[in-house]
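Quick start: what a row looks like.
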Amino acid sequence: MLQITDLQQEQKIAPLLRLGFRPFFLFGAVLAFTTVLYWAGFLQGHVSWIPSVNPIWWHGHEMLFGFLPAIIAGFLLTAVQNWTGIPGIRAGKLGALFALWVTARVLLFTDLGISMFAIMIIDVGFLLASAAVLAQPVLKIKQYRNLVFVPLLTLMAVANVVSYLPLLGLDAKFQQQGFYGMAMLVTMLVSLLGGRVVPFFTANGTGNSRLPVIMLLEVLSVVSVFTLFLYFISGVSLPPEFIAAVCFVGAIAQSLRWLRWRPFTTGQVPLLWSLHSSYVFIPIGLALMGIALLFPERFVLGHALHALTVGAMGGMILAMMARVSLGHTGRQLGAGGLMQGAFVLVVLAASLRSVGMFFWPQYSDVLLQAASLFWCLSFAAYVYIYWPILSAPRVDGKPG
C-alpha cells in the first residue's frame, strides 16, 4: 500500500505523465486520425504534400511505426506495473520517452535538414528504449513469462530499420519487407495479448466459464504468423502455395480459437463485442492474404493486409484503449453511445478498406474515402471523450 508521502509526490506530477497509457493513448489516437485525414486529403487533392519523404512510405510508416508503437508502449508500460507490482515509468522519464516518440514524428513530417539516418536512430531508439524500460521490472522479479514482449519490441525496431533502407539509398523492396514484417509482428502481439485478455474479459463480463485452452490452436496461431514475419522481413523467395498454406492454417487456428471464446454471448456488452469484432479480422486477413498469394493477378495483397492493420489492430486498439483508460483512472467500465458508435465505425472502416476493396477493386476510390472517414471519426471520438479523462487525476485519488 502506498504511503501518504507517495501520494504527495504523485500530486506533483502532471496527470498526463503519471502512467504510460496516458500520453501514448491520447496522442497516439490523435496521430491515428490526423495522419489518415491528411493522407486522404492529399489523395483527393485538397492539401499539398509537406513531408520530404515519399507519400506512400510516409503514410504506411507513420501508421505502422508511429501510431502502433505508441499504443503498444502505452499498454505494455502500464500493464507491467500490474504484472510485477513495481511502479511504472512516470514523470520525467515518461516525458523523455514520449518526447523521443514525438520528435521522430515531427522530423518525418517536416524538412529541417536533419539526415534521414539521424531520424531513423531517433525513431528506432523509441522502440529500443521502450523495450529496455519494460525489461527492467520483469527481470527484477524474474517474471520471465512476460519477457516475451521485449524481443517483440526489439524485432519491431529491426523491421523499422529495414523500412528506412530505401530512404538511405538502398533497394525499394525493403519498404515492403519492413512494413509487412511489422504488420506480422503486431498481429502476433495482438494474438498473444488477445489470448490472455479476451477470453478472461468475456468470461467475467458474461458470467460464462472459460473453455480450457487447446495448446495446438495456441501454437499454430502464433507460429503461423511468426513464419509470415520471417518470410516478409527476409525477402526470401518461396513458393506462393507454401506461404498461402501457412496463411490458411493460421486463419483456421485463429477462427477456432476465437469461436471458443464465445463471441456471440457478448452482444449486450460493448466493451466485449468491440474486442471480438476486431479480433475476427485476424483470420479474415490471413485468409485474404492466402487468396491473394495464390491469385496475384486478381487480388491485391495490400488490401488483405489492411484487414489486419485497420481491423484487428485498429479495432482492438480502440477497444482496449477505451477499457484501459477507464479502469486505470478509477472509473467504472462502460461505453456510452458515442464510443459504441466509434466501435462500429472502425469495423466498417476495416470492412470497406479490406474486404470491400479486395473483392470490388473497381469501387476503390469511394470505398477508400468512406473507410478513411469512418476511421478518422472513430479515433476522433476517442480523443473527444477521453482527453479530459487522460489529462486529469484518477477519480479515486489513487496514483496512476
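That is the whole record. Residues 214-394 form one domain. The first helix runs from residue 4 to 11.
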